[in-house]
Design brief:
The complex is a heterodimer of chains A (about 240) and B (about 55). Chain A is mainly alpha-helical and about 240 residues long. Chain A is built from nine helices and no strands. In chain A, helix 4 runs antiparallel to helix 6 and helix 7 packs antiparallel against helix 9. Chain A is globular. Chain B is an alpha+beta fold. Chain B is elongated. Chain B has a two-stranded antiparallel sheet. Chain B contains two helices and two strands, in the order αββα. Classes of the chains: A mainly alpha (about 240), B alpha+beta (about 55). Chains A and B meet through helix 6 of A and helix 2 of B.
């Protein structure tokens, strides 16, 4: 029997690849993904009533700001520094990039406070918490390299202040904040990729485990059915 | 040299700094932190539109 015969149409009309008997790595991966993150969890139509609170808004505010950061950054990349220093529209897009970052960190810090005080790592959400912490740290590095590539006197001053701090860590010989080309590549390529990947992981984990319920949510609450909760012992 | 000085003179000033002993902070940074606290507190108490109607 050839490989093609093995995955041929089964008696019920389904291919063998759709059944539990499928031991291929793609089949097993598909079953694992669909078990962990079925479509109704990935793109839910409704949320529990406790999500109808302003404190649950700031994660999405952070994501919206990230979209503006990347979109304005792409436009800045297309036109270059002379454009965003001298052209009025370039000035505007440059300002959008700056203020998107301001709002990004503004929302992210409030999101962090909110999640910290509701112990959002409950219910097997430790990895969600950890990816959030890492995304915060990587975002700070991305923002700092942004200071270095403004191509103005400000960036020169900041680079020469920062080199002492980086040199004190021992990383200065490799991560040279006075090397504009290196910092430019980190800022427009490596760090954005890192931020997007880690934020995507964070969002997927939120969807896998569901939005964390408030601390005083009753474990018998029907809205929590199917969600993983472990905080109920003291309530 | 004149051009350099004219450009240098357009560089933004450092801003207003507030100092209490060893603690020093730029006014703009302080305002952002105060605003974050205000928004955080407001988010806890301001009713969410349509929130009461949801089940």
């Amino acid at each position: 029997m050839t490989d093609i015969d093995k995955t041929d149409v089964a008696t019920d009309g389904e291919t063998v690849a759709d059944t539990e008997d499928d031991r291929t790595w793609t089949g097993r991966t598909r079953r694992w993904v669909l078990k962990k993150l079925p479509p109704e969890k990935l793109l839910p139509s409704s949320q529990p009533s406790y999500v109808a609170s302003w404190i649950y808004v700031f994660g999405m505010g952070t994501l919206a700001s990230l979209v503006f950061i990347i979109a304005s950054g792409v436009i800045l990349s297309l036109n270059g520094p002379m454009w965003y220093h001298l052209d009025p529209l370039g000035h505007f897009v440059n300002s959008v990039h700056l203020w998107s970052v301001e709002f990004f960190f503004f929302f992210m810090v409030i999101h962090l406070w909110g999640k910290f005080w509701m112990a959002a790592w409950r219910g097997h959400r430790a990895l969600t918490w950890i990816t959030g912490v890492i995304s915060f740290a990587v975002s700070i590095v991305a923002a700092f390299t942004g200071y270095l590539v403004q191509t103005n006197f400000d960036s020169e001053w900041i680079a020469f202040q920062a080199k002492d701090a980086i040199n004190a860590t021992g990383l200065g010989a490799w991560f040279d904040v006075t090397n504009f080309g290196q910092m430019f590549m980190w800022h427009i390529l490596l760090l954005p990729i890192a931020v997007v990947i880690i934020v995507a992981m964070h969002v997927v984990l939120v969807r896998v485990h569901g939005v964390v319920p408030p601390l005083d949510a009753d474990d018998s609450d029907s809205q929590l059915s199917g969600q993983e909760i472990t905080h109920v012992e003291s309530h | 040299m004149t051009d350099f000085l004219s450009v240098a003179s357009t560089v933004d000033p450092a801003g207003i700094f507030l100092s209490w002993g060893i603690f020093s902070i730029q006014l703009g940074n302080l305002l952002v932190i105060v605003a974050m606290f205000a928004v955080f507190i407001a988010a806890l108490f301001v009713p969410f539109p349509g929130g009461r109607r949801r089940k």
